[in-house]
Amino acid sequence: MIFGGFQKNSMIDFPGKIAALVFTQGCNFHCPYCHNPALIAMKGKQNISEEEVLLFLKKRKGLIEGLAITGGEPTLQKNLPDFCEKVKAMGFPIKLDTNGSRPEVLRGLLTAGLLDCIAMDIKTLPSEYAPLLSDHSMEHALETSIRLIIESGIDHEFRTTCVFPFISEEKAKSLVPLIRGARRFALQSFSDTSLYNPDFFNKKGRGLDDHEINRIKTVLSPHTESFIIR
Ligand code: SF4
């Protein structure tokens, strides 16, 4: 595992738990609004070793209630299943954040019972991810991940950052069949601090206003068990 960051405790990254948070290095997307741009490069700096994370968890048993694994994109780490096995063997529940691009990794983790909670970003319609990718289309992979997560039976959340042109009321209508039955959906307001591509927001990108966000909520919320705007 290559970790680009580590946060010893967080009250907001694992629903209902005080969790430690590890940030994996490397992402296969390049979202202009990414708030962790230093984590996108595949060969970034290793800030903490796997052994140090495991030792920290061992010492904090009873104080820390779980581990949240975020990125970057954690499913790109080839040792992720092995790392999750070690964390679970210590008795810690795991929450995984993912962009949904590696459904085969998600399937393996779910089948092995290694995850307790998943949060997946849905950035736009799966057929419209091209501006966020450096290589091929991921439409099928993204749709497969969404179905896997909804059918997993574990706690899960989908979340969309409210940035034009990626999401709109019209696009939300097309998302309905994909997210129907999801346990939780979160619309996240756009924040313009520490962006991967600030230039994008000088040209065509912008955060949606409250009215636009509420219109999207009206479209999506009848189809999910719970819905939040944060
Ligand atoms: S927002 Fe997430 S998926 Fe997008 S570039 Fe950043 S880490 Fe990758």
UniProtKB/TrEMBL annotation:
Stored CDD domains: Radical_SAM
PROSITE patterns: RADICAL_SAM
Radical SAM core domain: residues covered: 13-223
Keywords on record: Iron, Iron-sulfur, Metal-binding, S-adenosyl-L-methionine
InterPro entries: Aldolase_TIM, NrdG2, Radical_SAM_PqqE_MftC-like, rSAM, rSAM_sf
Gene3D superfamilies, per the entry: Aldolase class I
Name assigned to this protein: Anaerobic ribonucleoside-triphosphate reductase activating protein
Organism: Desulfobotulus pelophilus
